[in-house]
Specification:
mainly alpha, 3 helices, 0% strand
């Protein structure tokens, strides 16, 4: 790199501050999204299933109750994984501040392992949630088809 393309210490510091601000904003937004996701999923999945039981199939077949139980368990597991995902996302943002500092000022690059944990949790949560809907759908299908 030529001399005129090298960044001054002030420019490096400004880059660090800009990156830090973006990461703090991302952490804040992640926290907001976390609250909304938890409330939406918890009230939506459980509330809908209770309303379904009360209004549409008040007396489900006893041999299908295990499907309902598994779906509720998977909905709960999905919520726990989402909870951990958002917490690990916040930690990843905090750690990324140090990673960015090291990259800008020390020319050292290292991975942020909490970013990987967050990605894993996000995909796991989606898979568990999808599976929960499959079990819920089977419960609904079996009880609606056989009551009509």
């Amino acid at each position: 790199m030529s001399e005129d393309m090298k960044l001054s210490e002030d420019q490096k510091y400004q880059l660090f501050l800009d990156e830090r601000k973006l990461l703090i904003d991302a952490e804040r937004e992640g926290s907001r999204t976390f609250d909304k996701a938890i409330l939406t999923l918890a009230s939506g999945a459980f509330g809908f299933s209770i309303a379904f039981l009360k209004e549409i199939v008040p007396h489900p077949f006893s041999n299908t109750l295990w499907l309902l139980g598994v779906s509720w368990g998977l909905f709960a597991l999905s919520l726990v994984v989402i909870l951990f995902s958002f917490l690990s996302s916040q930690l990843a943002c905090r750690i990324q501040i140090d990673v960015a500092y090291d990259a800008i000022f020390k020319n050292q690059k290292h991975p942020n392992k909490w970013s990987s944990v967050t990605g894993f949790c996000n995909y796991t949560s989606i898979a568990v949630l999808a599976l929960a809907f499959v079990f819920w759908g089977l419960f609904v299908y079996w009880n609606v088809i056989h009551t009509n």
